[in-house]
Each structure stands twice: as C-alpha cells, then as structure tokens.
Amino acid sequence: xxNLTVKQVNILANGQxxxxxxxxxxxxxxxxxxxxxxxxxxxxxxKRREKSLGKFGQLTLAEARGEAEKIxxxxxxxxxxLSTPSIESYVGMTFDLxxxxxxxxxxxxxNKHPDIPRSKYENNVSSHIGxxxxxxxxxxxxxxxxxxxxxxxxxxxxxxxLGLLNQLFKHAIxxxxxxxxxxxxxxxxxxxxxxxxxxxxxxxxxxxxxxxxFRKHSDSFTRDNYLVCCLLITLGVRKSELIQAPWKxxxxxxxxxxxxxxxxxxxxxxxxxxxxxxVCWLEELKVRLSTSPSVRHL
Length: 298
Fold this sequence. Notes:
Residues 197-298 form the Tyr recombinase domain. The relative contact order is 0.06. It is elongated, with a radius of gyration of 28 Å. The strands form two sheets. The chain has a four-stranded antiparallel β-sheet. A three-stranded antiparallel β-sheet has the order 5-6-7, with no helix packed on it. The mean pLDDT is 89. The chain has helices spanning 6-13, 61-76, 95-110, 115-124, 126-129, 139-151, 155-174, 204-216, 223-235, 239-243, 276-288, and strands at residues 18-23, 26-30, 37-44, 47-55, 250-251, 256-259, 270-273. It is built from eleven helices and seven strands. β5 and β6 (256-259) form a beta hairpin. The chain is of the alpha+beta class.
C-alpha cells in the first residue's frame, strides 16, 4: 500500500535532506543540493538499480505512481528502463512539444511536403491546446477546434486537422505519455463532413470575366500574379507544382518543362510541351522575378 500523502510530500519538499519511501521501490528524495525528485529502485537481472522519474513540481504524487507502474511494466516485459529513452523527458510534455517531437521523428521522414501539416497545426491547433499538457487535452478541446475551423468555412481543413490530431495522440500513446485518444471518437461527420469530388468547372465566359477584373485592378493584382494565373489556366497543373518550380526545370529554348517525380503527386517524371505563348509569359515572368529562384509564390 502507498505510504505517502500529498500533504506529506509538500512538507518533505520544504524540509531537510531525506529519502522517503512510498512503497514498491518508489521514493521521494530531497537532496542536499538541487530540487526534490521522485526515484524508483528496482531489480533487473538480479542487480539493484535506481532511476529518476521527475522533479517535484513536474510530477504529482499520483503521476509519480503512474510513471513507476509504467516502468514496472517494462521490467515485466524484460526491458531495462535504464536502456530506454528517459521517461522524465516526456513527463509533463505540452501538446506543442508533442507536435515538435512527431514532426522531427515522423513527419520530416515520411511526408513529401512536411510544411503542410506544420502549417495546419500552427494555424489551427496550437493556439487552442499547444500550452496544455497532453493528458489535459479532452474531447471538448477537440470538438472546439473542429467547430472553429468548420464554422470559418474550411471543411476540408477541419477533416485534415482531425486526422492530424489522431496521429498526434497515437504518437503520444506510443511514447507512453498517455493511454487516451480524445480524438478517436470523432469522424469526418463531426468535422467538415464527407468530402465529394468537385464537378464544377469554370465556363469560358467566367474565365474571361475573371481576367477582365484582374486587368482592371492591376494596381492591386500585379502583372506577376496575372501571368501566373495565365500559366495555371493553360498548363492545368497543380498550383504548388507551378509556383514552387525552380527556373532550371524550364527549357525555354526547346519549349519543354521537365517536372521531376520528386515534385509530382504521382511520383513520375513529366515533360510538358510549352506553346509559344506560354514560353513568352515565362520569359517575361523570369525577367520580372529575376531575384526569385522559383516561378512565383502567390
């Protein structure tokens, strides 16, 4: 049975150097120098060992007992806790730090465009729960995030953020930070709704009207943007494929755009023939953006 109470821990933390047992190897240590901390003694391969769990102020009594039980589970599975990454480094991890950890260990390695999930997190999640500890985040927080995005008229982003939240909680579970995923009970119906492919296309008349408006407002809609829109309409490529294209991809002498597989959704090299009008637009744009390494960031 546990021996310590919260009141006793608070008194000990302000007292003299001591090491007080809570039972089953868990102790509260007040060192001669430094901050009080939680420690767990255990036996592994017939050797007595000791591991620090976290400092007083970072771990409550209940949390220390929980961390101690996680370590005991590792030992029962034949894993030496001292050979695994420090549990202390993850105790009290905020949601912002959780995202940073997943970004470094998973997103950067697996995503072709890691800036996309980072942008979605920073713009839609961080301000809501980034400062909270992972275990403090509830289903209410998740619902509020999804409702805020959906009510702003961005249903697709809402669905994407729900997927991102599920990934983050799964990552937290893998690290042993939490055993709960508050986002798991939500589906796309609770976010932006079931997405359907768009069938709507612009008519020739609508395109003509749009470009007429662009020309009338050239003081605010610059010639650079106008040319990029012309290229998007005529080439029919994804916006990111065009505006992120370095100039070296364009062979204007032979009127061909060599789009490498690293930048295509299909992961296939594509060579796109360029009509003379497009070559003229690109030549003008290249002169206008002489200091830019790529076509244009709208």
